[in-house]
Amino acid sequence: MARHARPGRRPGPSGEGYLGGQVLIAMPSMQDPRFAKTVICLCAHSPDGAMGIVLNKPLDGLSFDELLKQLGLEPVPPQRRIRLCQGGPVEGGRGFVLHTLDWSNDQSLRVTDDLALTASVDILSAIAGGGGPRQGILALGYAGWGPGQLEEEIQANAWLSVPPDEGLLFGEDGDRKWFQALAKLKVDPLLLSGAAGHA
Fold it and tell me: What superkingdom does the record give (predicted)?
């Protein structure tokens, strides 16, 4: 996590027609192995493109305690820990904390009225010390789309979207999260088709 890294500073929740703050669910027909059965919190979406955090790919080989040691942050062991995940294929060495908006700093990007994204180490120090946001998840890397790319993928039936809830965002069930997200839509994945429908 870069000490002064920050996600692109965009205004808070996305405007009309944009899905910032929503949760994307990969359709069963998703061919890209990096996104098969993923659940993504879309943190920013505008005419410039989109950026999100994959929620259901646990990070293997690195613990929260080890990350604190690498960054030289105290205390180790921490008073609190948060879950680590692979946030996406872009900038895999860069850390982002998706968290409840009861904690923020001047580098935090407001995602919704309840959520923010912070890429400074201050939040890790706060969590390790027993404070910080009530809920959070640390992602290494993110998912990114260029201008119009996400809209094209949605038109091609690659993604569904649902409103977020804390269980979906911060709950532990990595393997089950995709099914939980679909259950919010009351959809059986076996009945989903990848063929785009046209009226």
Answer: Bacteria
Burial pattern 40-65, b for ≥16 Cβ within 10 A else e, equals bbbbbbeeebbbbbbbbbebeeeebe
CB 76 within 8 A of CB 124: no
Q: What is the pLDDT of residues 103-144, one digit of tens each?
A: 999 999 999 999 999 999 999 999 999 999 999 999 999 999
SS3 category, 75? coil
Q: What is the pTM of this model?
A: 0.87
Burial 16-38 (b: 16+ CB within 10 A, else e): eebbbbbbbbbbeebeeeebebb
Residues 6+ apart with CB under 8 A from 140: 59, 62, 84, 85, 86, 87, 92, 93, 94, 95, 96
Give the integer Cα–Cα distance in Å for 36 and 184.
19
Q: Are 120 and 110 in contact (CB under 8 A)?
A: no
Residue 62 φ/ψ, nearest 5 degrees: -150, 125
